[in-house]
Amino acid sequence: MSSDEGRQIVAAFDPNRLAPEFYENPYPTYAALREHAPVHRCPDGTWFLTRYADLDQIYRDRSHFSSDKTAAFGPKFGVGSPLFEHHTTSLVFNDPPYHTRVRRHIVTALTPHVLQAMEPQVMASVDRLLDRLAECGNFDLIEEFAAAIPIEVIGNLLRVPQEDRQPLRGWSLAILGALEPALTEQQREAGNRAVREFTDYLQLLVTDRRAHLSDHDLLSRLLQEKDLSTQELLHNCIFLLNAGHETTTNLIGNGLALLLSEQPSLQRLRREPELIGSAVEECLRFESPNQLGNRLVVQQCCVGGVTLPAGAYLNLCIGAANRDPREFPQADVFDIGRKPNRHLAFAAGGHACAGMSVARLEARVAIPRLIQRFPGLQLSGERVRGGRARFRGFRSLWAHV
Ligand code: HEM
Q1: Can you list the pairs that 13-16 forms with residues at least 24 positions away whose Cβ atoms lie under 8 Å?
Q2: What is the per-residue pLDDT across 3-28, written as a single tens digit (0 to 9) for each?
Q3: Helix runs in 212-323, H state only
Q4: CA quadruple 333, 345, 124, 116: dihedral sign
Q5: Using 50, 70 and 90 to split pLDDT, how confident is the model at 153?
Q6: Is residue 237 in contact with ligand 1, taking CB distance under 6 Å?
C-alpha cells in the first residue's frame, strides 16, 4: 500500500460507518491507521488506537484509564434500560472497588484444579459432537461444532440443566451485538429483550440452586458470597455466560478456518501435535476473536506522542495491535510455531480475561481432535462472516469429509 493510499484510508475511516469490505478484511485499514494515525481522532470525537505498545500501556495503567462505561452507555442504551443495567453491572465495565470484589470471586472459582477436572468433560463433549458430524459428512463447523462447545463448557461450569441451554447462544449474541460501535434500533430492542429473558430465566435457576447448593459449580459458589447482591449476581452470571460463548466459538471457528485454508500449517500441526499450544496462541493473535476494547481517560496523559484529555473515550483495537510489526516479526504471516507471542487477545493488566485458561483448554482440545478424527476434512467454500467489528468470527463455515 502506498503512503497516499494509506492516508486516504485514514481520512475516510469512521468506526460508525464501516464498509462491507472492512468486515471481510479489516487488516489493510488497521495497517494504514497504525502507520499514519496510530492515535486517530474519529468523526464522533472518540479516539481509535492501533499500536501494540500504546494498547499495552493503557491496559496496564488504571490510574489514567477507566473501564466504567456508565457515561458512555447512558446515551447508547438509555439509562435504566435492561441493556444499561446489565452492562453497567458487569465487572468488565467497572473499576475498583466493585470490580475487584466481583473479579476475586470468579478468579478464585476458576482454579487450576477446577480446570483440570473440566478437561475430561470437554473431551467427552467434543467427541460426542464429532460422532454426530461423522454421520453427516457435510456440516457447518460453527453451528454444529465451534458454537456447541462453549455452551457445554459454560453450561457445565454454572450447572445450567441441559434442556435449558438452547436459548443461551441467541441471548448472548443479542446482548453482545448491542456493543457494536454503531447500533440499530432493531439490535437495541433484541438486546433489551435478551437481557429481560435471560434475567427471568436465571432468577428461576438461582431460586432452585439456593435449595440445592453444591461445592462443584460456579453458581453455587457465587451464591454463597455474602457481598454480592442478587442483581450483581444475575448480571455477572449473564456476563460470564456471554463472555465465554461468542469469543470461544470464534477462537475455534477462526482457528479451523485458518488451518483448513493453510495446508502447510495444517500438515505441520498433524506432524508435530505438540505445537497445539503455540498454534492456539497464533490463532488468537492472527484473527483475534475480540477485536475492540474501550477505555475512558480519567486524567490527562500522553499516549503515542498524543495528549489525551480527561473525558476522552478510547477504542483500543486489539486486532490491529496483534498485527503490529513493531512487536511481531512478519506480523501478517500465520506461524503456528511463533515464539514469543505476547498477543493482547485477552487484553492485559487488571481486567485481563478471567476465563482465558478455559478458552485455551477448549481450543486445545477441540481443534486437534477434529483434525485427527477427519484427516480428509476440507472447507466447502461456503462461509459467511459474522458481520461485526468488535467480535470477529463466522456465522457459518461449511466443511465436508
Ligand atoms: C477466546 C476466548 C476469549 C477471548 C478472546 C476473551 C477476551 C477477553 C478480553 C479482551 C477481556 C478484557 C476486556 C476489557 O477489559 O476491555 C476479557 C474479559 C473477561 N473475560 Fe474473556 N475472553 C474469552 C473467553 C472467556 C471465557 C471462556 C470466559 C469465562 C469462562 C471469560 C470471562 C471473562 C471475564 C469474567 C472477563 C472480565 C475480566 C475483568 O474485567 O476483570 N472470557 N475477555
Answers
A1: 13/40, 13/42, 13/48, 14/42, 14/43, 14/44, 15/42, 15/44, 15/46, 15/48, 15/181, 15/182, 15/315, 15/389, 16/42, 16/43, 16/44, 16/181, 16/182
A2: 999 999 999 999 999 999 999 999 99
A3: 218-223, 230-261, 263-271, 276-286, 318-321
A4: positive
A5: very high
A6: no
Q: Is 363 in the pocket of ligand 1 (CB under 6 A)?
A: no
Give the chain's end-to-end CA distance (angstroms, integer). Answer: 39
User: Which cell goes with 257?
Assistant: 478456518
Taking 3-state DSSP, the helix, strand and coil percentages for the chain, each rounded to the nearest 5, stand at 60, 10, 30
Measured from the CB, is residue 92 less than 6 Å from ligand 1? yes
Q: Which of 108, 248, 353 to mutate to test the pocket of ligand 1 (most atoms within 8 A of CB)?
A: 353
Best CA proximity match to 306, nearest among 106, 94, 38, 81: 38
How far apart are alpha carbons 129 and 373 in whole angstroms?
11
Mean pLDDT over the full length of the chain: 95
Say whether 385 sits in a helix, a strand or coil.
strand
Q: How confident is the model at residue 286 (pLDDT cuts 50, 70, 90)?
A: very high
The whole-number pLDDT of residue 400 equals: 96
Asked if residue 367 has its Cβ within 6 Å of ligand 1, the reply is: no
Task: Indicate the residue type of 376.
Answer: G
Q: Whose CA is nearest to atom 22 of ligand 1?
A: 353
pTM: 0.96
Cell 487488571, located at residue: 350
What spacing in Å lies between the alpha carbon of 378 and ligand 1's midpoint?
Answer: 31
How far, in Å, is the centroid of ligand 1 from the Cα of 137? 34
CA 312–ligand 1 middle distance (angstroms): 24
Looking at this protein, which amino acid is placed at residue 358? V
